[in-house]
Design goal:
Blueprint: E1 4-7, E2 14-17, H1 27-40, E3 42-45, H2 52-60, E4 65-66, E5 86-89, E6 92-93, E7 96-97, E8 120-127, E9 135-139, H3 140-146, H4 149-155, E10 159-162, H5 164-171, H6 180-185, E11 189-192, E12 194-196, E13 203-205, E14 211-214, H7 219-233, E15 239-242, E16 249-253, E17 257-261, E18 272-278, E19 284-287, E20 290-294, E21 296-297
Parallel strand pairs: 2-3
Antiparallel strand pairs: 1-2, 3-16, 4-18, 5-18, 6-7, 8-16, 8-18, 9-15, 9-17, 10-11, 10-14, 11-21, 12-13, 19-20
The chain binds 2-oxoglutaric acid and fe (ii) ion.
The site of fe (ii) ion has 4 residues, from loops.
Length: 298
């Protein structure tokens, strides 16, 4: 079995054609796909029509699956038949949401607010509106490389504090505040802002919507730098906006990619995306071959 591929956009991504993803795939082909994934941050497959089992099996080719904890008591859990699948949707049944519509509003990488962020994620578009509901992807290798020296020297080897507790009501205004128990389950974490990718050894910018403070900087200066880094990494030069079609599957590497759902009003039609998520490992920054700065819990 052979496949073909084509660049998705200048900044990021490759589209892969000619593979049947509903059947087990040769180890050699998986290695080739992984190489493309590592080199291009995101992979797009089109016209996929698969069952949750098939999505789960295909995702497992890339690592161990992560099961998303329930985000809030007002949201449904993951797919009840398949807890490995998290639902992103604007659909309501009997007045209740069947998934989390605003899960991805605001630039982020999945799990960035956890001690061990997620390695990768895969979204499958089951239903999409005719207009709106796009998703942006930013290549944080490229933004890191292009970062002006005067900004870079200020953050290299430093960590940022990522806080679910501080940012929950700002990032998820539609959800009730965190309970005491939820706060205890989501302690703050410090991650290196410039992160060495564990497979490619390349440097990328690791910042996002849960970051609130920078090591060794006064609080307001840290917040300004986070804003500046976010604006920089999501410049047109580094991003691609995907307009979903039914049957699209995108696998992205959370270690070197940020993503963001472009907010939409939901009047345009139903949006139903199913996500599988991969476990990751502890972020670090390597200098001269040595792991110098690792993440730690606050
Ligand atoms: O709704 C989207 O486009 C993205 C959702 C998201 O951030 C995610 O599933 O990780
Ligand atoms: Fe996300």
């Amino acid at each position: 079995m052979k496949f073909e591929c084509q660049r998705l956009s200048d900044p990021i991504g490759v589209e892969i054609f000619g593979l049947n993803l509903t059947k087990p795939i040769d180890e050699k082909i998986i290695q080739d796909i992984r190489r493309l994934w590592l080199d291009n941050n995101i992979l797009l497959f089109r016209n996929i029509d698969w069952t949750p089992e098939q999505q789960i099996s295909f995702t497992k080719n890339f690592g161990k699956l992560h099961i998303m904890p329930q985000l809030s008591s007002v949201l449904p859990p993951n797919l009840t038949t398949h807890p490995e699948i998290f639902i992103v949707s604007n659909i309501k049944k009997n007045g209740k949401p069947i998934g989390f519509k605003a899960a991805g509003w605001g630039w982020h990488s999945d799990g960035e607010d956890k001690h061990i962020p997620n390695m990768g994620s895969m979204l499958y578009a089951v239903d999409v509106p005719n207009k709106g509901g796009d998703t942006g992807f930013a290549n944080t290798y490229k933004s890191c490389e292009a970062l002006p020296q005067e900004i870079k020297k200020n953050i290299v080897g430093k960590r940022a504090r990522f806080s679910r507790i501080t940012m929950h009501s700002i990032n998820y205004p539609s959800l009730p505040p965190l309970t005491r128990k939820e706060k205890l389950e989501r302690p703050d974490v410090w991650h290196p802002i410039i992160r060495t990718h564990p497979e490619t050894n390349r440097e990328c910018l690791f910042i996002g919507r849960w970051a609130v403070e920078i090591e060794g900087m006064p609080a307001d200066e840290g917040r300004d730098v986070i804003k500046e880094l976010t604006a920089f990494t999501t410049k047109d030069d580094f991003i691609y906006i995907h307009k979903w079609k039914i049957g699209d599957v995108i696998l992205w590497d959370n270690r070197c990619t940020q993503h963001c759902a472009v907010p939409y009003d939901g009047e345009e039609g139903m949006r139903y995306l199913l996500r599988t998520t991969l476990e990751g490992d502890l972020p670090y920054y390597k200098n001269k071959g040595e792991k110098q700065v690792c993440s730690y819990l606050a």
